[in-house]
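Internal ticket - ligand job 413, zinc ion:
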Amino acid sequence: MEYPDHRRIGRQLGIYATDESVGAGLPLWLPAGAAVRGEIERFIVDLERRHGYQHVYTPELAKRELYERSGHWAHYRDDMYPPMQIGGEQVVLRPMNCPHHILVFEAEPRSARDMPYRLAELGTMFRYERSGVVGGLSRVRQMTLNDGHVFCAADQVEAEIAAILGLVGEAYAALDIPAPTLRLSLKGSGPKYVGDPAVWTESEAMIRSALDGLGLAYGEAEGEAAFYGPKIDLQVRDPQGREETLSTIQVDFHLPARFNLCFQRGPVKERPVMVHRSIVSSMERMVAHLLEVHDGSLPVWLASTQVTVLPVAADGLDHAANVRAQLRQVGIRADLDDRDATLASRVRDAEQRHVPYIAVIGRREADGDAVSVRLRGGERLAAIATPAFVALVSAAAASRSSHVPPSVQVPVV
Ligand SMILES: [Zn+2]
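stdout (C-alpha cells):
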C-alpha cells in the first residue's frame, strides 16, 4: 500500500521545491505552499493574540556569548552551525529562540502585575542536520517555529499548562487533525541534563499535577526531556502509524536562573518560571504533516487553491473571469482553467489538485449570473447564483473549520 508522502503530494500541489544551488534541507516555498503556510501563520497569531500573547520579532543571529550564557553552546553545539567571524566577534545562527525572548523579558522591569507574561514569535532558526537525513519539509536545516514563552510565577504554571493544552485543542480542531496523545518526557541519565535534581523533581511534579488536575492520561518516556527541564510532548501519528512530536510544553526553572531573571512583587524580587511551548510546531513540519494526514485534501480555509473556475466553452469566459474576480475580491484563492482541453479532463485535473470547489460555467450559467458547483469528492450542487456561491465559499473559508465543503441549502437558479 502506498502511504501519503508529503514529498509526492508536495510536488503534485506545487508546495515547495529544492535546488542544489541553495543546498540540502533548504526548501523554497512555492506560491501554493506559501498560501498554506501563510494561512497557518495568520491563524496561530490570531489564536495566540486572543489568548493573551504578545508577538515579537527578534534577530536570527546572536553573538556566541548569548548561547554560552544560555547553555546551548555547551549542550547543543553539535546541532548548531559554526560561528561566523565578524570583526572581533563571533556570531551564530540561532538554534532556538528562547534566549532572545529572555532578552525581551529583560528589556524592561517586570512586576507581578505583568505575570503571566506571554510572548510569541514565528521564529526562524537553524539546525545542523547531517546531509544524509535531510529531506522534504520534515527534516530541514532552517525552520520557522510557532514558538512562545510564558514567564510566570510558580503558582501560575499549572493554569498556564492547562491554557496551552486548550490552545492545542483549538488549533488541532481547526486543522482537522486528530487529538494528540500526551507524553511526559523525563530526564535520563548522562551529562546532557543540567541543573539541580531537586528542581527537576519540582518541575516534574508541577506538570503531573497540571495533567492530573485536568484528568488527562499520559505516557512517560525517560531520556526525552530538554536539557534544561522536563516537558509534555504531544504526540501524533502519521498515516503509516509513525509517532512524531508536533507540540511541546516545557517547564523550565533553569534558564531563568542562568539569566538571573526576576520580577518585582511588592518589595521582593521573585524569579519567574519559564514555560516554553509550541502549539503548531514549525511551519515546515506542520505542512508536511497536514499534507499526509489529509492526503492532500486540506480543509477549505487551508487549501492552496480554493476554487477553480472552468468555462465550458469560449462564450463562458467573460463570466468565468468575472466569477474569479468576485472570489478574489473577498480573499478567496481562485484560479481559472480555460485551457483548450475537454471539460472532463480539466475537472479531473482540479480533482487531482484536491481543489474543494469546482465552478463550471456553461452558457446557461453565463446568461443567468450563476455557477454549477462540484464539490471535492464528487457531489454536485444545483446551479446557484454567483453572489450566493461567493458567500458560501467565503463562509467556509472564514470558519476555519470545515474539512469537506458544506453541502448547504442555497438558492437555486
Ligand atoms: Zn524555548
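Auto-summary: Confidence is low (pLDDT under 50) at residues 403-413. The pocket of zinc ion is lined by residues 96, 98, 149, 276 (CB under 6 Å).
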